[in-house]
Amino acid sequence: MTVQKIAGKEAIIYFDSKRCIHSRNCVLGRPDVFVPNIKGDWIFPDRASIEEIAEIAHNCPSGAIYYQRVDGQVGESAPKVNTVRVRENGPLAFHAPIIIDGKDQGYRLTFCRCGHSKNKPYCDGQHAAENFIATGEPPTKESAPLVKRDGVLEITEIKDGPLRAAGNQEVVTGTGKTINRAEETFICRCGQSKNKPYCDGSHKAAGFQAGGITR
Fold first, then answer.
1. Looking at the chain, which terminus has fewer C-beta neighbours within 10 angstroms, N or C?
2. Is 10:45 a contact under the CB 8 Å cutoff?
3. Residues near 119 by beta carbon (within 8 Å), at least 6 away in sequence
4. CA triple 170-200-208, angle to 5 deg
């Protein structure tokens, strides 16, 4: 079981270690709530207000940290604009209502694009060890404004190939510039595409292997 559940008076914090990319937003932002490298409990929900816990969770790009309000009110809600953020020399950070294989995955996930993650399709930080180089500011692709900018984004792993993202989405750079608007994209996850972050078929020549459906 990779998910830890820590209950406080106002909120329940969940931590999914399998999704964590160690962005350290939680530890750097609230070192009193998230205290790493100690024995036993390391998350202390009652040291922050429910509003502060919500902010911490919403700043977690991988969705490894999420929360539930004890009072029964709705916690995190779906974004008004679905975004796919291209991180410099790192993964793709999705912010949308995400579904994979028919299962709800929450609103935030980071997907590997270096090809070396041992936890595909998710990023596990291996890009740093592999010295993966890929700009977070790719060129703008001409695109028309979307009629609708939110809604479900369905992710499909294509066997030995890219990720297919179906649904309204805006691809943005690490600094927040929109470079593409689409209802479907095929995202490189082998790390070899010359058209990153999109697939250009390089996975075939590279002999990339990863699970998924056969197309």
1. N
2. yes
3. 18, 112
4. 110
